[in-house]
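name: query_chain
kind: protein
chains: 1
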Amino acid sequence: MFANKALKIFSICVLVGVTVITGLWFLQKQDKKPVSEKPAEKTYAPSKPQLVIDYNELEKDEQLQSVTKDRKTKYGLEEGVDIIVRSDESFKIGDTTVSMRESQDKMRLKSGDIIENDINSKKGASNKIINEFGIYVVQPGDNLWDIHFKLLKDYFNHKGISISQVADEPDRSGYSSGMGKLLKFSEHTVCIYNLKKAKLDVNINLISPLNKIIVYNMNEIFTLLDCIDYSKVNKVEFDGETLWIPAEQ
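structure:
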């Protein structure tokens, strides 16, 4: 009888133990947080490729001709520049493709500006000001003076002002004409890009046909030209660095 009683107690203890263990296991399972899945790797959409203005295709690409004509018309230009490229585009001449954004930064550094890019600011990048640049491809027989004069004649013709072929020459006393002073000043406002060396050229007097290009910042050049009254152009003064425009009376 004692043995039966002991067996019964033992059975109850085993049952209680199993119940407790089962309960603890169930509670532990309930409280245990599911293992989080491995975070998905970030994916980046490829940036939109820059539009390439291909000078090599200018004579046969009708769409490119149309774009170029529209952009030139905006400034009243015909022969002063070959193509106009936005700062968010690239251009190609021969086998060389040049990013206008990188060239713009080089030009700003050349002029002493501080370049500051916030790589974490997408909003800032989207609101970045877009500038336009006139590109003239140097041809055999070209010189810097005549290249600039061609641009000025285009501009004034658009304004309905006919410019003499000798308007840039000194007067009888040997003094520079107003056009001559504008041309001297323009030498300080443009950049020469060496296609062969893929960099800005420091010597603006040495230009090579098809190997170098003249780059005009259209916004700066035409902001200046719009301030000039041609009837007073001969009163313009240039001291080697600064162009002085006579104030209106």
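note: Residues 51-116+127-234 form one domain.
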